[in-house]
Structures are given as C-alpha cells and as structure tokens.
TrEMBL record, chains A, B:
CC cofactor: Zn(2+)
Pfam families found in the cross-reference section: GalP_UDP_tr_C (PF02744), GalP_UDP_transf (PF01087)
Protein name, entry field: Galactose-1-phosphate uridylyltransferase
Family: Belongs to the galactose-1-phosphate uridylyltransferase type 1 family.
One annotated GO molecular function: UDP-glucose:hexose-1-phosphate uridylyltransferase activity
Signal sequence region: none
Cofactor binding remark: Binds 1 zinc ion per subunit.
Domain named HIT: residues: 196-309
Keyword rRNA-binding recorded: no
Length: 339, 339
C-alpha cells in the first residue's frame, strides 16, 4: 500500500510508493521507455487497461470493447489505491497515513494521433463532461476531500503515453497548494469583501493587455505573475467555486474558449509540451464566496532548477503582456476551417 | 530592468526579465545551445566574464587572470540587477517592484572536467568558504533580505554550462518558500519549545534508518517525506540558524560529510543530474531559536508534472529508508584512496 507522508516543517505531503520501490538502476531503464508501437489506450486494446468506469459513445451493455468516443479507466499503476482505511498515525514526530485515493485515466479520444489542439469541439466537450461526471461520482465517497484533474502533454511535461489522455486523482486530504490558494483568496476576501479572481477578471478586462481570448462565459489571460512563459489561466466570468457548478451553456463556452486557446498556443509553439490543472474548491466545503475555480495551463519551456526549488520564486523570460499579445495576434482561422 | 511581480492570490513572486523578452521562436533555439568547445569559466577566459568579486589562490594584484583555484563573478545574464531602487508600486490590485538583487556565479574549480564528487577536499572546502565570504559581503547591502545559494548539475537539472559552478542570488524579499519553512518551524517551536530540525536530527539518529552518513559536526539523512528519490538533507548537529555562524571545525566537518555524500550519490547514480540549495535564516533576523540552516540535495530522477504543479504533492517511488540504506551500503573506499 502506498503511504502518504507529511513533511514536519512545511506540511507538504508526499506519496511514497513502497511497491514500486525503485532502486538506482530502475531510473536508468525508465529513460528508455515509451518506444514501440503498442498503445494500451487505443481501441481494440481495452483488455490491457483495468475495467472502465465510464465510457461515452457506445452502448452500456458492451463495456471494455471498441466503439467508444471517450473512456475513463483506473490507472494501471496508481499512485494511490481505492481499497482500505486511512489509518492516520505517527512515527515519532512524523505523520503518515495509508495512500488511499482514486487514480483514473481519461482517454480523451479513440484516435491515437489526435491532440487537444486539433480535436473537433464535439470531442473536446466530452472531455469536460467526463471530468464533471467523474467528480460527481467520486464525491460520493466520503473518504475523498479533494479531486485534482490534470493533463501532461509531451514527454518533457511528464507524459509517459503518447495517446491523448488526462488524469484524475482523488485525495483524502486537501493538498497544500490548494489550501494555500484558498487561504490567499480568503485573506483578500476578508479585506475587500470581494473574490480575488472576480477582481482579476475585472481588471484584466479593463486593462486588456493580458487577455488571450474571451467569450460570453469565459476569459483566458496570461496571469500577471506567471511561473512559466505563455502560462494561461482560463476562468469562468460568473463567480463559481466548483467546476461541477457549471451549466450546459458554460460547458459549451468553456469548450469553445479552451479549443481556441489551445490552437493559439499550438500555433505559437508547435507541439509544445504542457501541463494543465483544474483547480476547484475542496469537495466538502460547499459553495465558497471567496474561491473561484479555474484551469491553469503551463507550457514547459523553462526548467525548475535550484533557484526555484530553493525559493519558490520563478524566473520568467517572457512578460505575460508580450505572451498574450503574441497569442492574441496569431492567425488561427485556417485551423478553424479544417474542423 | 527586470521586474518582481507578486501573485495576488498565493503571494508567490516571479522575476519577469523584460530585457530577454523571449518570443516563441527563442525557446526553440535555446534547446540547441550548450554545444561547442569554448568555456567562459575556464582559466584563460577571464575576460569573457564580468570582473570577479572574489578569487582564491592567486595574488590580489592580478585580478581576472589565470592562476586562481576558485573564482566568483557576477552572472553575465543576471536574473536581477544590482543598481537601482526597489520602487515598490501597484498596478491595480497587483504588486510589483524593480528586480534589484545580486546574481553571482561561483566557479568551483579551474579544472573543466572536475565535478563535486571527484573533487579533493581542499578544493571543496574553498567552495564552502566562498559561500560564507560572499554572504558576509553582500549582507552589508541593506537592500538585500535573503541570499540563496544553489547548484544545478547536469542539463536535466537546469545547468547551461558544464564547468562546475554554483550560483548565488541576493533578493530584496524573503522568498515564499523560506517564509513557509520558517513559519512551519515557528509553529512547531510554539507548541514544543524545541527546534523541529533538532528534533528531526534526534529522531533520525535514534531510529537510524534514514541516515546516509554522519560525523561529529554534521548528519546527512534522506528526509522522512522526500520530494524526490534519493533526496538528502545535510544538517549541522549543533543548533544554528545561519550558515555564516559556522566555525572552522564545522566547515571542515561539512566538507568531509558533503564529499562523502556526493561520492555515495555519484556511485549509486553515476553522473545523476541534481540541484542543491542552501537554506539559511533571512539576513535581517539575527539568530533564531526555531530555525536551523541546512543543505537540501535533490537528484533529478522524476518529473514535476501536472499533479505536482496542481497540488504541491510529490509522488516518490523510492522510500527514503531504502534510498538511505542503498547509499549507506555503497562501497566508496576506492574513490577515497584516489584523492
């Protein structure tokens, strides 16, 4: 069973996978992986993944067979396991608990070579629907306090499989990074009685120098203090603390804006590796006046090195105003016609 | 002039290098760098770096000429600049200031191919001396509140030059990551009236399952909740909040233990890329009962991907107990005889 351990100083949690128990030589092998023609996420290979927990586009009576347009399966090598109790305990001054959680893979398309930036919007909307459906289902399990959904695209951004997919991890604790974000929002709210994200959206729309794209429901900006060049945040214009609060209009609006943003990014930096993360309120907090869900897109263009590790500072060689202007001015009309 | 910008939510600072102003195409070129035979850090090429601020092993009347055994120079492409005022100001709800600071390169050896793990201890002690000398000198500048010293070894860990070097950045603010650490230490101290690092050292020495090496003055452990496989912390056994509090005995003790640890690491994972960071108390805080300086060594074996970015959690496939045992049991006697 994996173990969750808490750093006694900062309070940061790590997941220790005892099972994998990697020795030095194992790391050398890892770098050689990812070659070869077989893809466990492609249609026809459904039996090589754990049984699916969700599938769209195919009759329900034929699970784990081809014909699906999107499929969600448990991760074959999960960071956390679903069965068991947390069993919180100490080891002297240290704190730990069992690595209980869910780790799922959202297989975003049956087409091995299709990427987010060239996906038709009918396909993309299914991804956002799947995120919602999985969160709503996993939320029923009272052991889970937080669900993070993220995507690693490209080897340099941590993807070990080429086939377009994102991941979901349900956690028994609210992660440090989220708590920090919520505390910051609360501090702002205490002082101003306004949501900081709503204020960011207001200021960005009025300054209009860091906006990448917007539509009726959503806005995409290069944030004022971005960690990486071409970092982009997508935020609902309406105040909303949880992803699952979205209605159908918003889901469509998100799909349209996300599609546009990813096309712009891919045109500016062809096949750039990236990560995106969905930040939504913790599962047990209800609706929050001070928190605002959003998606953070981080292209992988710079290194996290000693300075960043040591200080939490980031050095960014591209001002967000220039990144936003560049992305905004790119001509993506041709790409749109293709779909 | 670079700009320091503060994230309005978390309070994280980033350095925006307007001068570099990288456009998308610049990132593609960057990946091609680092080839070619010319090394600006090698003896004979002193005129290709900014004038040195410190040199050992050579008469002072011949600055910027060969003959040195260690040399410190300002970074030619600094993240922060030394001239100017902070000029703290707002931009609507956002906060920023000028990117004032010092950014120096510690050229650790005149020998291009020598690395920390095969360096004689007479060379290594000079590095730790240089760190101390530079901190003491820069501390006189009242604009600086914190100095971080770090090393990036290997391309994958962010090193852009092969020649063995570390870096120093003096900052006009105490970084978020350090504040977080100090707050955690203070929380522990408030509750227990003891330094958390002193307690960690006490528990590690009594459990004796995560210790990599120790001598009279220092101890090296794989921390209980490590972010990366084979992460190692080196801590002075004596309570001390600042690196510059070290006496000569300790300096020797640190050199010996550091040398042993790096040889063990390099034997376990030959030429593994790594970062190390020196964490010491902020410059203006005086001596702190609750904080304890230390060095964090992070081998680069796993990826920072969407999950880590999104949550601040880390997934570590190697339990620190196994990493420590592996490092402890490695036979490095042969390597020691060579020096």
């Amino acid at each position: 069973m994996p173990e969750l351990r808490r750093d006694p100083i900062i309070g940061r949690w790590v997941i220790i996978s005892k099972e994998r128990g990697k020795r030095p030589s194992d790391f050398i092998i890892e770098e050689e992986r990812t070659k070869g023609g077989f893809c466990p996420l492609c249609p026809g290979n459904e039996n090589t993944t754990p049984p699916e927990v969700l599938a769209y586009g195919r009759p329900v009576f034929a699970p784990n067979t081809p014909g699906w347009t999107l499929r969600v399966v448990p991760n074959k090598f999960p960071a956390l396991v679903i069965e068991g109790d947390l069993d919180k305990r100490g080891e002297g001054i240290y704190d730990k608990m069992n690595g209980i959680g869910a780790h799922e893979v959202i297989i975003e398309t049956p087409n091995h070579n299709e990427t987010i930036s060239d996906m038709p919007r009918e396909q993309l909307i299914q991804i956002f629907r799947a995120y919602r459906d999985r969160i709503l289902d996993l939320k029923k399990d009272s052991r889970f306090k937080y669900i993070i959904i993220f995507k690693n695209f490209g080897r340099a951004a941590g993807a070990s499989l080429e086939h377009s997919h994102s991941q979901l991890i349900a956690l028994p604790i609210v992660p440090h990074r989220i708590e920090e974000e919520i505390k910051g929002c609360l501090r702002y709210f205490d002082y101003k009685d306004r949501c900081v994200f709503c204020d960011i959206i207001r200021q960005e729309r009025s300054q209009n120098i860091r906006i990448v794209a917007e539509n009726r429901e959503f806005v995409a900006v290069c944030p004022f203090a971005p960690r990486s060049p071409f970092e982009i945040w997508i935020m609902p214009k309406r105040h909303q603390s949880s992803y699952t609060d979205m209605d159908e209009d918003q889901l469509l609006g998100l799909t349209n804006l996300f599609s546009e943003v990813m096309r712009r990014l891919n045109k500016a930096l062809p096949r750039v590796p990236y990560n995106y993360m969905l930040h939504s309120a913790p599962l047990r907090n209800g609706s929050l006046e001070h928190y605002h869900w959003h998606i953070e897109i981080m292209p992988k263009l710079t290194m996290v090195a000693g300075f960043e590790w040591g200080t939490g500072f980031y050095i960014n060689p591209t001002p967000p105003e220039e990144a936003a202007r560049f992305l905004r001015e790119i001509d993506i009309r041709k790409e749109f016609k293709k779909t």
